Amino acid sequence: MKKSLAFALAGGLTALAMSPALAQKIRIGCTSSADCGTAMVAADNGIFEKMGLDVEMTRIALNSNIPPALLSNSLEIGGPTSSVFLQAADGGLDLVAVAGASYMHEASNEGTVAVIRDGVTIEKAADFAGKKVGVPGFGAYIHILFVRYLMENGVDPASVNLVETSFPSMPDVIRTGAVDAVLSGGPIVARILESKTGHLGPKFVSELGGDAPIIFYAATRDWATANPEAVQKFRAAIAEAAALIEADREVAIASVAKFTEQKPELVRATPPSKYKPEITADGLGWWLDLMKKQNLLQGSVDAANLLAP
Question: Strands of 198-200's sheet, edge to edge?
Answer without folding.
Answer: 161-164, 132-135, 181-184, 113-117, 198-200
